[in-house]
Structure formats: structure tokens, C-alpha cells
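ok so dumb question maybe but i'm new to this and my supervisor (M.) told me to 'just get the structure for DUF4333 domain-containing protein' and walked off. so i did the thing. is this what she meant?? sequence i used:
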Amino acid sequence: MNKLVVSGAGAVIAFAAAGLLGAGAATAAPDVVGETYEDAASAIEGDGGTAKVAVTVGSKLSKDDCVVTQVWDAPFVRDAGDEYTHADGEVMLSLNCDGGFAEADHPGASVASPAGREAKKAADKEAAEKEAAAQAAAAAEQEEIAEVSTPDE
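this is what came out, is it supposed to look like this??
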């Protein structure tokens, strides 16, 4: 009665896989969904990672102003000649470059969606602040004009 006893096989396989793929530090992709690419890339680099754009939808905005819609750790291994290394620290991003919300003249998130509503609310607030600043500047200019006096001749 010869019995083959295999103990610790899982540990041996895991050790071999780690040696083959590289045993880098496992990090989770930071939660940067909803942020601009510029802010997301800064946060990722602050955590010691590298931001990589995997998907871009639209072309209305500059890359730094595009909104991150999805984020994940790089799931692949690179062949570096005689060794394989995992893409440690690389964080993949999906970007929406159409803008925060849809309007008649350009695409974007529906204002019926949470992301679209928030973007519309922020845009409306910014427009109201600009309008109030313009009105204040116009009122100050009118006041200055009213104070100007013409010398008597």
C-alpha cells in the first residue's frame, strides 16, 4: 500500500507563480471616479502609481478636463525579455471627454442620471456666480460714471 502524500502543494504553486510573475506589492486602484483626469492622475501618482488611459469617449474637452468614469488596476503581465513582470502600480482609467452633461449642441451624461444632475447643478452655479460678478462690475462702473463731475466753465 503505497500512498502518495502531497502536502503544501498550494504553497509551492503560489510561490512558483509569484516568482514567474514578480511579487510586487498589491495595491488597490484609488476611488477617483467623477474627478477630472488631472486630479485623478495627481491622486494616483501621490499613491505611488501611474495613471494610464485605457478608454476615452468623446473629444470636446482637453485631456486634463475629462471626467474619470471607471478605474481599475492593470490586469496584465509584461514580457521583459527573459522575465515576466506584472504591471505593478499602473492604474487604468476610462475617461468621458464629452463634458459633464448633455445639451442640445453637444453630448454628455443625461441630466436624468446622478452624474449629469451634479454636473448641471455645478455648471448652473458657476454661471450664476459669473453673472452676479458681471452685474456687480457693471454696477460699480455705473456708480463711477455717476460720480464723475464736469468742471464749470
